[in-house]
Amino acid sequence: MSHVAILISALTIATIAQAQSTAPVTLNNYGNAGLIDMPSGQSMPEGTLSATSSLFNKSLRNTATFQITPRLAGSFRYSFVPDFIPGAGSYVRPEYYDRSFDVRYQLMFEGRYRPAVAIGLQDFAGTGIYSGEYIAATKTLRPNLRVTAGLGWGRLGSYNSFSNPFGADTRPSTLGTAEINGRPQADVWFRGPAAPFAGVEWAPQSVRGLVLKAEYSSDDYANENAANVGYFDHKTPLNFAAEYHFKSGSTLAMNVIGGTEVGLRFSTSIDPRKPRVIGREEAPLPIRVRQGQSDQRRAIFGDVIDGHSVPSGYVGSIPAADITQSPSGVRIARIQDQCSPAMARELDAQAGVVDLVIFENNAGAARCSVVLRDAGATYVQALSKPANADGANYGDDANQAAIARLNALMKTDGIVVEALDVTAGRAHLRIRNDRFDAPAQAIGRAARAMTHVMPDSVYAFDITVLEQGLPVSTTRLQRRDLEQLQFDSDGAWKTYVRAQIEPSDLGQGDLTFADGYYPKLSAGIAPYIATSLFDPDNPVRVDLRLRGFAHLDIAPGLSLNGSVSKRIYGNIHHATRDSDSVLPRVRTDLNKYQAQGDPTIDRLTADYMFKLSPDIYGRVTAGILEPMYGGLSAEILYKPVASDFAIGAELNWVKQRDFDQLLSFRDYETVTGHASVYWNMGNGFLGQVDVGRYLARDWGGTLSVDRVFKNGWRVGGYMTLTDVSFDDFGEGSFDKGLRATIPLSWFTGQPHRNKYNLLIQPIVRDGGARVNVPNRLYPVVSGVDRTELRNSWGRLMR
C-alpha cells in the first residue's frame, strides 16, 4: 500500500468513527500534543503548562508548552544539536545550542463523527533546524484507542514527499542565516513538498497508565543522517514508543526512532488552577452576631437599637423622639466651647447607639442637638447610656484601644492595622496584608475581627487594603450580611452582590493611626537561587546566594528600601563570553557584573507612593534601582478602580553602575521613558503596550500579553521592536521573552504573598532594554482593584 493510501485510510477511519476519547492527551518528543515525533490533532486542557525533555542519541530537546486558550498553544524549545551543519557547504559544528518557538491552533474539536483537527508552525521563529508546518487530524475509535493522520511541510514534509497541494513547491532555506534568525520566516510557511504522516495510540486496559504508540514519520532526519555527520542511520519511517503516565501528571517514555536509535522522553504537566496542596490554612475567627435584635426586626429596619422612646416629634424632616420632658431617654454630652457634630458621632460610636445628642453649656442650657440616624431607618430611637466627653483625645484613645484588640485578633493572620476611624454606624479600617495572596481573604479576616471589636451600633465596615502604602480601593461590607451569610454555602458571592467597592479617599480624614506604626522597620535574611541560562559555553549556571533586606516605613507612602547579597556557592561568575554588540552595552556586559560583584548592593532606594486623585497615582523612586543602574524614576498612572483600562507614563534618569555593584558608577548615563496602556481583556488575559525610549537610546515599543489565573499564577510573553535594525541588534534579531509568576501558596497550600518570578530570554542583547524599576504602579494598583477582588472573592469567608 502506498504512503498516500495509508494517509487516506487513516483519515477515513478517523472520520467515520464515533467514539470520543476519555484518555489524556499525550505529548511527543517536541513537547507538543502528538505521537512520537509527529504531531496530533488534539490540544491539551486549557491552562496546562508542560515541560518535556527528550534524549535521542546525542540530541537533547527541552521544551516548555503552554495551552494559552482552548484552541491556542505556544512552545519554547532549547536544544543541544551535535554536529550541526548550518547550510549547504558549511562546516560542521560539534556542539550547537538552538532556540526555537512553536505555535499551534485547534481548528476543530473532536465530535461524535468529526476528528480533532489542528494546524501548527514548528520552529517558526528560530534558526530553522526543526522548521516545519503541519495539519493533523485525530479521532478516537475506542476510549483507549486513537488514530492520527496529517500532512507536513518543511522538516515534517521531507520523507517520501509529493508536490505541494497548494502549488508552492519551492521552499527557501533558512539554515544559512542561523546566526541572526529569531524572527518569523513567513515566506517559508507551508511551502515546498508535502509528505503524509500517520499513527496510532493504544492504552491497554490491563496496565493502567501504559500507552503504546506507533507512527509513520514524514521526517527523514536529513541533517542528522548527513554523510559527513552520520551519527544517526535512518532506515525506516516507522517509529515505536511505550510510555507510562504517572498519577502525578508526569510521563516517562522509551521510543525507537528510524529503526536504529533508542530515545527517552520525560514530561510533566500541571494545571495552574489546581494547587498541589489544598486546605492547610487555619480556620478563621468566627463572626460574632449581635444580640438584642430579632432577625425579622433587622430585616425590616436594618441596624436600629431597641429603646424606650417612641417617635413623637421631628428634627427638621427627620422623625425623632421628644426628649425635652424625658432627659433619662438621652445621652447628654457636656462641652465648654463649641457644638461639634464630629464629637457627637464619636460619642455615639464609642459609647453606644444614641440617635439624638444634646450639647449643653455649664449652666445646663441646651446649645444644639445632633440627630444620628441610620440611612433608611423608619424612625429614630434613643438608648439611655452614660457617656463622658471630657478631654479632647476621647475618640483617639478609644480608637487606639480598638486597634490594639484588632491587632491581637489578627496577629496570626499576618494583618496589621494602620489606622481606624469609627463614626456613627460605620467603621473604616486600613490594614496592611502581609500574608494572604487573595486580597478578598484578607478583607474577610479583618471583617471577622471587627465583629468582635466594633460596637453593636456599627452596621457597616469599610476596609482598605494598603499596597506599598497606597490606599487603592475601599470595600464596604454590611455587618448584617456577614452575620446572616457566614454559614451559607454561597455566602461569599451573596456578600459580593451587596458589597460596595470604591476608590479610597484621597486624604486621611479622621483616621486615627496606630501608635508606633510610623516609623516601622522590617528586615530579614534569606537564601535564594540565582540562575543564568542559555550561555553556549555552559547553558545552565546556578548560584546559591544569601540576601539581607530592610524596609523602613517613614510615613504613609514614604519608605526606604535596601537589599544586599552574597554568593555562597555557584558558577555564574565563571561566564567569560565577550559582547559583540555595536550598541552601547547596556545589558551585554552582564557577565562582568556577575563576575566582579560579590557581595553586591542589589537595591538602595527612597520611595514615595501617593495619590493625586481617587483614580490617579504617583511614584518617585531614587537611588540604586537594580544591579546595573541607579538614578531617579518618576511615574504617574490613571487607573479607575472599576475600569479594565489604565494609562501611565514613566520617566527615568539613570547611570550605569560599576561592575562591583557597590556605590560607584560608570560614565554611561541616559534618559529613558515610556507611555503605557494596560488592558484587562477578560478571561484572565492582560495586555500592555509601552512606547518610548530604551536604555541604548533607541526608540520603539513593547507588546506584552499575560494569562493571569485567579490564584496568582501568571504566564506570558513580550516582544520589543525599536529603530535598531535586525543586523545591529545581532543574534535573535529583536528582544523577546517568556515569563511566569508562580505563587508559593500553590505549592504549600498555605496563604503566602511570596512569588517566584521566572524570566526566559533566549538572547540578552542591548536593543529594546529597559531599566528594572521596583514597585511600578500598575502591578501595585491592579492587585486590589475591583477585578482582582472579584477574582478572589470566593475566599472572603475562608
Structural class: mainly beta
Number of strands: 36
Radius of gyration (CA) equals: 33 Å
- Low-confidence segments, ≥5 residues, pLDDT <50? 1-21, 293-340, 350-355, 370-394
- Silhouette: globular
* Count of alpha/pi helices: 12
How many structurally independent domains? 4
Mean pLDDT: 83
Strand order of the largest sheet: 24-25-26-27-28-29-30-31-32-33-34-35-36
User: What share of the residues does DSSP label as strand, in percent?
Assistant: 35-45%
The largest sheet, given as strand count, sense and whether it forms a barrel, is:
13 strands, antiparallel
Question: Alpha-carbon distance between the termini?
Answer: 64 Å
- Helicity range of the residues? 10-25%
Protein name: YjbH domain-containing protein
Pfam families: YjbH
Keywords: Signal
Signal peptide: 1-19
Q: Overview of this structure, please?
A:
- This protein has 798 residues and is mainly beta.
- The chain folds into four domains: 268 residues, Porin (Beta Barrel); 74 residues, no CATH class; 123 residues, GMP Synthetase, Chain A, domain 3 (2-Layer Sandwich), CATH 3.30.300; 270 residues, no CATH class.
- Helix content is 13%, strand content 42%.
- It has twelve helices and 36 strands.
- The strands form five sheets. It has a 13-stranded antiparallel sheet. The protein has a twelve-stranded antiparallel beta barrel with strand order 1-2-3-4-5-6-7-8-9-10-11-12. The protein has a six-stranded mixed sheet with strand order 22-21-20-19-18-23.
- A hairpin with an 8-residue loop joins β3 and β4.
- α3 packs across α4 and α4 packs across α5.
- The two termini are 64 Å apart.
- The N terminus is likely disordered.
